[in-house]
């Protein structure tokens, strides 16, 4: 067949070549589709910080979850005169309720915290000395008024509930182990000490007044005797 001007010669594909081309096109589309879906998913995760990388499920960063608790503990420890950590395992519900009531009445805050939270909050403060005892279940007892109150109430309660274990504490900036906290617990409360001091100050005055009264009574008796004669 003679060629004409402007005619385009087309290559005729065989059936095998057609099938190969079709397969390649299908593979390219699949790869592009997967890549596009992956890019969209990646962009969604990047744009939205509450989506994780594994399935788009909501989550909060561990740091964000820790911050409120750490701030709470830091506030409790701020200005505290003493802090004692205990292991409360084995206490019954009734015992735990009674202990909390006694501590509350003594002006002591008491709460169970994770060790890592206490460690973060106490870092850089005098209460960082508690770090060796931050293992296992831990409850933190803190007082901002009476330095001996946490140790005193806890030690007294432990006499009736032997499952309560005093680990250690910091009192007036000084670290004490369990034995030291036991000694601190034997120190009377501030009110008791003031009462004893006041009593000791009043005793000499009372005794002196009694002596003066006795002298006055004797002098009175001596003055009345000549009048009778």
Descriptive account of the structure:
With 229 residues, this protein is α+β, with helices and mostly antiparallel strands. The chain has 7 helices and 5 strands; from the N terminus they run ααβαβαβαββαα. It has helices spanning 15-47, 62-77, 93-105, 115-122, 149-158, 178-185, 190-228, and strands at 82-87, 108-113, 138-143, 165-171, 174-177. The chain has a 5-stranded antiparallel beta sheet with strand order 2-3-1-4-5, with helices on both faces. The radius of gyration is 41 Å and the shape is elongated. The chain starts with 14 loop residues before the first helix and ends with a helix. The model is unreliable at 1-8, 34-38 and 44-51 (pLDDT under 50).
Number of helices: 7
Instruction: Give the SSE string.
Output: HHEHEHEHEEHH
* Percent range for β-strand residues: 5-15%
Mean pLDDT reading: 76
Main structural class: alpha+beta
Strand order of the largest sheet: 2-3-1-4-5
Given as residue ranges, the uncertain stretches (5+ residues, pLDDT < 50) are 1-8, 34-38, 44-51
Rg over CA atoms: 41 Å
The biggest beta sheet reads: 5 strands, antiparallel
Ends distance: 180 Å
The geometry reads as elongated
The helicity comes to 55-70%
- Total strands: the figure is 5
């Amino acid at each position: 067949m003679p060629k004409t001007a402007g005619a385009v010669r087309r290559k005729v594909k065989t059936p095998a070549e057609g099938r190969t081309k079709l397969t390649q096109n299908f593979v390219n589309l699949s790869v592009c589709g997967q890549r596009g879906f992956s890019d969209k998913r990646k962009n969604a995760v990047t744009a939205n910080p509450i989506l994780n990388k594994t399935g788009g499920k909501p989550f909060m960063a561990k740091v964000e979850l820790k911050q409120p608790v750490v701030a709470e503990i830091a506030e409790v420890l701020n200005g505290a005169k003493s802090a004692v950590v205990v292991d409360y395992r084995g206490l019954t519900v009734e015992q735990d309720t009674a202990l909390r009531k006694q501590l509350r009445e003594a002006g002591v805050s008491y709460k169970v915290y994770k060790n890592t939270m206490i460690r973060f909050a106490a870092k850089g403060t005098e209460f960082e000395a508690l770090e060796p005892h931050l293992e296992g279940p831990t409850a933190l007892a803190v007082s901002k008024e009476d330095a001996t109150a946490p140790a005193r109430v806890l030690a007294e309660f432990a006499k009736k509930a032997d499952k309560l274990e005093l680990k250690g504490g910091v009192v007036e900036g000084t670290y004490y182990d369990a034995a030291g906290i036991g000694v601190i617990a034997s120190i009377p409360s501030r009110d008791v000490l003031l009462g004893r001091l006041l009593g000791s100050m009043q005793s000499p005055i009372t005794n002196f007044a009694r002596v003066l009264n006795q002298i006055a009574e004797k002098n009175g008796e001596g003055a009345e005797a000549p009048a009778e004669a």
